[in-house]
Design brief:
Rossmann fold, 14 strands, alpha/beta, 456 residues, five-stranded parallel β-sheet, Helicase, Ruva Protein, domain 3, single chain
C-alpha cells in the first residue's frame, strides 16, 4: 500500500513542485493551500505524513498542527518555513511535530525524513499489533481446560492478575506453568511493560548472578562493558523465574533482598539499583523437601509463596485430554496446511488411556507427530507415535479410565464421559448435528448447547 502525504503550502509553485517530486517517489499526494483545506482533507482520510508550511493565509502552521495531532496523534508532521529560528523549532518539537525544515527545502533531506517518519510509524503500528496478538494469545479463554480443576486455576489466576502480589506456580514439567505466567502478565496492568523470562536451571551458576542482576564494566574477566540484568530490563513489568528450586543458595540471599527492598547491586558495583518488578516464580521441585535438606531458604520460600497456584498434571484432569487434542489438531493442521477433521474413536481411546507423564507438552508433541503422519481426514491409531500404540491402551474403555480418577467428582466424571460420547457421535456423522442428535436421543437445540458447553 502506498503511503499518503498531505502537502499544506500556500505558494502554488512550491506546492506543485513538491507534489511532483513526491509522486515520482511513489507517494500518494493530496494538496491543500490553506488551513481550512488541510483540516477538511485530513478529516476525510488519514495521512502518514503532513508537510506543513509555517505561514498560511488563514492560520499559522503550528495551530493547524496542534489540531491535527489532537485528532490524529499518530500523524507525522514535518514543518516547513522560510523563517527558521531556534525558538520556533523548539516550540514545534515540544508540541509533537516530527521534524522542522527551513526553506529552500533540501529535497534529499526531505525524502530521508519522510521515509524515516513512515518507518517509525510502521514499527509503532507493528508493535501495537504484536502486543494485541500477545494479549489475545494469552487470554484465559485461550488456555484449554474444561475440567473443574483447571477452572479453579483460571479463577485464581484472574484474581491474581489484578494485583502485584508475588505468585508461585507449582506443577510437574509440561503442565503449562509458563503459559499461566504469561496469562497473568498480559491480563495485568503491567501488560504494556516487559515480561522477562529466566530459566534458573539452564544458566550456569557462575553466569546466573550477572544474568539476573547485571554487572559493571571490569567486574570480572570478559566484562568489557556494563550490562543490565534481567531485573533492570523487567523494571515496571514482570520477571518470570522458572525452575526457581534450582537457584543456588548464594543467589537466594540476593533475590530475597530484591523482593524485600526492591533494590540490588550489579556484580562489581556499589550503587543501589532501585526497581519495581512483579515476580512470578515456578517450580516442579518439592521446595519443602529442599528446605529440609538445607538447599532452599525458608525466608525466601515464604516471600515467594504469597499466592501459590498448583497446576494439576494431565492424568488428574482426564476430561481435558479431548479438548486439548482438538486444539492441537487444529493448530498443527493449520501449520502444516492439512485438512484434518479430527480423531477417530479408537485413536481417542488410546489418548484417554495413556498416563501422560510429560503432561500437556507430551500430548502436544504426540498430536503434532500424528498430524504429520496422517494421510486421511481423521487421525487413526496408526498415525499416533509408536509408544502409544500398545494393546493395553487400545483396550481400555473410556468409562473405566474416568472412574479410576478418584479425585474427580461424579459430576466431573459424568461430564467427561458425556463430552466424549457426543464427540464420537459427531465424528461418526461427519459433524452432521441433526444426525448426531438423533443418534444421541437429543433435540438439535440440546446438542448445540452441549457442543458449545464442551467447546467441541
Amino acid at each position: 500500500m502506498k503511503e499518503k502525504v498531505l502537502i499544506v503550502e500556500d505558494d502554488i509553485n512550491t506546492l506543485n513542485g513538491l507534489a511532483e517530486i513526491l509522486e515520482e517517489e511513489q507517494f500518494v499526494i493530496t494538496k491543500a493551500r490553506n488551513a481550512s483545506q488541510a483540516l477538511s482533507a485530513i478529516r476525510k482520510k488519514p495521512f502518514n505524513v503532513v508537510l506543513m508550511d509555517y505561514l498560511l493565509p488563514d492560520q499559522n502552521g503550528l495551530d493547524v498542527s496542534r489540531q491535527i495531532l489532537e485528532e490524529l496523534p499518530d500523524t507525522k508532521i514535518i514543518m516547513m518555513t522560510a523563517f527558521g529560528t531556534v525558538k520556533n523549532a523548539v516550540e514545534a518539537m515540544k508540541m509533537g511535530i516530527y521534524d522542522y525544515l527551513t526553506k529552500p527545502i533540501n529535497l534529499d533531506e526531505l525524502l530521508i525524513i519522510i521515509r524515516r517518519a513512515i518507518q517509525e510509524q510502521r514499527l509503532i503500528s507493528e508493535n501495537i499489533d504484536l502486543k494485541s496478538k500477545l494479549t489475545d494469545t494469552y487470554r484465559f479463554e485461550n488456555i484449554v481446560g474444561v475440567s473443574g480443576k483447571m477452572q479453579e486455576v483460571f479463577q485464581k489466576v484472574m484474581k491474581v492478575a489484578g494485583s502485584d502480589a508475588t505468585v508461585l506456580l507449582r506443577g510437574e514439567s509440561g503442565t503449562g506453568k509458563e503459559l499461566i505466567a504469561r496469562a497473568i502478565h498480559y491480563q495485568s496492568k503491567r501488560r504494556d511493560k516487559p515480561l522477562v523470562e529466566v530459566n534458573c536451571a539452564s544458566i550456569p551458576e557462575n553466569l546466573l548472578e550477572s544474568e539476573l542482576f547485571g554487572h559493571e564494566k571490569g567486574a570480572f574477566t570478559g566484562a568489557h562493558k556494563l550490562k543490565k540484568g534481567k531485573f533492570e530490563v523487567a523494571d515496571g513489568g514482570t520477571l518470570f523465574l522458572d525452575e526457581i528450586g534450582e537457584l543456588p543458595l548464594s543467589l537466594q540471599v540476593k533475590l530475597l533482598r530484591v523482593l524485600q527492598e526492591k533494590r540490588f547491586n550489579r556484580v562489581g558495583g556499589i550503587d543501589n539499583i532501585q526497581v519495581e518488578v512483579r515476580v512470578i516464580a515456578a517450580t516442579n521441585a518439592d521446595l519443602e523437601k529442599r528446605m529440609e535438606e538445607g538447599l532452599f531458604r525458608e525466608d525466601l520460600y515464604y516471600r515467594l509463596n504469597v499466592i501459590p497456584i498448583r497446576i494439576p498434571p494431565l492424568r488428574e484432569r482426564v476430561e481435558d485430554i479431548g479438548p486439548l487434542t482438538d486444539h492441537f489438531i487444529r493448530k498443527y493442521a493449520a501449520k502444516n496446511n492439512r485438512t484434518i477433521q479430527g480423531i477417530t474413536e479408537e485413536a481417542l481411546k488410546i489418548m484417554m488411556a495413556y498416563n501422560w507423564p510429560g503432561n500437556v507438552r507430551e500430548l502436544e508433541n504426540a498430536i503434532e507427530n500424528a498430524v504429520v503422519m496422517c494421510e486421511g481426514d481423521y487421525i487413526t491409531p496408526q498415525d499416533l507415535p509408536a509408544y502409544l500404540q500398545g494393546p493395553p491402551m487400545v483396550d481400555s474403555p473410556l468409562l473405566k479410565i474416568v472412574m479410576e480418577q478418584g479425585d474427580l467428582s461424579y459430576r466431573e466424571k459424568l461430564e467427561a464421559c458425556e463430552r466424549e460420547i457426543i464427540r464420537m457421535a459427531l465424528a461418526e456423522t461427519n459433524n452432521n448435528k441433526t444426525r448426531a442428535a438423533k443418534k444421541l436421543g437429543f433435540t438439535l437445540r440440546t446438542l448445540r448447547n452441549k457442543v458449545k458447553k464442551y467447546n467441541l
